Automatic annotation (TrEMBL):
Its main location: membrane. Pfam families: Mesothelin. It comes from Fundulus heteroclitus. The keyword Glycoprotein applies. GO terms for biological process: cell-matrix adhesion. Keywords: Cell adhesion, Glycoprotein, Membrane, Signal. InterPro entries: Mesothelin (IPR010335), Stereocilin-rel (IPR026664). This is Mesothelin a. Belongs to the mesothelin family. GO terms for cellular component: cell surface; membrane. It is found in: Membrane. It comes from the Eukaryota.
Length: 484
């Protein structure tokens, strides 16, 4: 039998993708004596299905093995985290918070956290990814902060350094009032946030420009000061850059011009992101946006491009944002002019990367908010299946039968059951023949994408019969969504 290390090595040599990791996780249960030796990529394959035949003690050890920090952190989704919590919630050491991944702690039943241990709970929770909450469970984020205020005796918006340290990543969701009034260590926490709202960024800018924080008055700033600000300058507006324009920041590599951008080596000569920031002007971005976004693909660099673009008008530039669109904030997206289906198609182009569902929803909603715009054939082809699933059930219900019938095949496997049900009903009406009782094999193939994970169950629920025309038809006797 192969040793555990050789199996895991073979997985990565052959580039096995995440959806197969559940299988290898089960193999590793058999071969590994120490689950902590498993790679983070393999641990990402945890699902309730992959562990259903595994002993409780092993499941518990596996969950503990997922507690990793930094670049080795095991990135898990909500369904995995809720499954993990359900596996351990009856354990005697459930309140030994330091044993379990911080992201799992997000889904704890807080009423079971002893008052005497609540501070320890929030200390361990500080490293959790609070963005993992789905829209249906996002209320937990607010509830956690309410509980933290009670536990830590937070009675005002003036947070102390100790309170900020305990809140950790939760600070990314504090409103502008807290940012303006709290200890300046909050600014350091905000550097690591995935995104800041316009209101949050405005509060950060106010504190920086005030000159009352560690960085001092802007007139005394140097290139080193800007480096120490991390990602914060990327969220600042034109007023901020007007203030730092007088700061002597030397561009030593060479100013970026149209000629520079057209060179085959661009942007490799600007491997220092601070030089890229110093040498790139807002005017150059405005005049060469499409050329820049075709060559620059690193997220931090794209944030700089977008930050420069904020300093100039961009009403007609949305179509050529390319990959830079993926680093935009929700507030920025809401300010975009998305009235034409061509603009929608450019923004949804998968070659520029995947969209966060909440941002995809914002873009599509912005388009649909224009009078006369609907979810027709052109729109469905532009949006594609995965992004379509980001929309609310009520919006999906407005898709026309003709639009769905004439559109390209949609991959909607990431849709929730209620959304699939809506899409199935529309597709059923769009593709159905006069006899609703008979579903031909060709029709079944057209409807199959909208059956989701129930496909096999539904197929077994159908009987194959021969009609008078000697053609086979499926009777959906127990079809979950079909009203045969």
């Amino acid at each position: 039998m192969l040793s555990a290390p050789s199996v895991v090595q073979d997985v990565f040599v052959n580039q096995v993708w995440p959806h197969t990791m559940g299988f290898f996780l089960r193999v590793c249960f058999t071969l590994c004596t120490c689950l902590c030796s498993l790679s983070s990529s393999v641990l990402q394959g945890f699902t309730c299905t992959s562990v259903r035949t595994v002993k409780k003690a092993q499941i518990k050890n596996l969950i503990k093995a997922c507690r990793r920090r930094g670049s080795n952190k095991v990135k898990l989704e909500e369904n995995q985290l809720t499954c993990m919590y359900n596996q351990i919630r009856g354990e005697s050491d459930i309140t030994s918070f330091e044993l379990y991944p911080p992201d799992v702690l997000l889904y704890y039943n807080y009423s079971l956290v002893p008052r005497s241990s609540c501070k320890t709970y929030f200390e361990q929770l500080s490293e959790a990814d609070f963005s993992v909450f789905s829209s249906s469970l996002s209320y937990k984020r607010s509830a956690l902060f309410d509980n933290a205020r009670s536990c830590l005796n937070i009675t005002s918006t003036n947070l102390t350094g100790d309170q900020i340290a305990i809140l950790g990543n939760m600070c990314c969701y504090l409103n502008e009032t807290y940012i303006l009034k709290s200890d300046e260590s909050l600014l350091e926490k905000l550097k690591s946030c995935q995104d800041l709202s316009v209101a949050q960024a405005g509060a950060v800018q106010t504190r920086l420009i005030s000159g009352t924080v560690t960085y001092g008055p802007i007139s005394t700033w140097t290139d080193t000061t800007l480096r120490s600000l991390g990602s914060l300058p990327l969220y600042m507006n034109a007023d901020f850059y007007d203030n730092i324009a007088k700061v002597n920041i030397e561009c030593t590599v060479g100013n970026i011009t149209q000629v520079t951008i057209s060179d085959a080596t661009f942007p490799f000569d600007y491997d220092d992101i601070n030089q890229f920031n110093s040498c790139l002007s807002a005017a150059t971005v405005r005049d060469n946006l499409e050329a820049i976004t075709k060559k620059v693909d690193q997220e931090d660099y794209l944030k700089i491009v977008l930050a420069k673009l904020r300093q100039v008008s961009m009403p007609d530039q949305v179509q050529v944002l390319g990959a830079a669109s993926r680093v935009a904030s929700l507030d920025e997206i809401n300010s975009w002019n998305i009235t034409q289906v061509d603009t929608l198609a450019e923004l949804m182009d998968t070659r520029n990367g995947e969209w966060d569902p909440s941002l995809a929803k914002a873009i599509i909603s912005k388009y649909l908010g224009v009078a006369g715009n609907t979810l027709g054939r052109a729109e469905l082809n532009a949006i594609g299946g995965p992004n379509l699933c980001s929309l609310d059930v009520e919006v999906l219900g407005n898709i026309s039968q003709e639009g769905l019938r004439d559109a390209d095949a949609l991959v909607v496997s990431n849709c929730t059951t209620d959304k699939l049900r809506v899409l199935f009903n529309i597709a059923n009406q769009a593709f159905q023949s006069r006899s609703r009782a008979l579903i031909s094999p060709s029709l079944y193939q057209l409807l199959q994408p909208y059956l989701g994970e129930q496909t096999d169950v539904q197929t077994r629920s159908c009987k194959l019969k021969r009609n008078s025309g000697s053609k086979y038809n499926f009777f959906f006797l127990c079809c979950r969504w079909c009203t045969c």
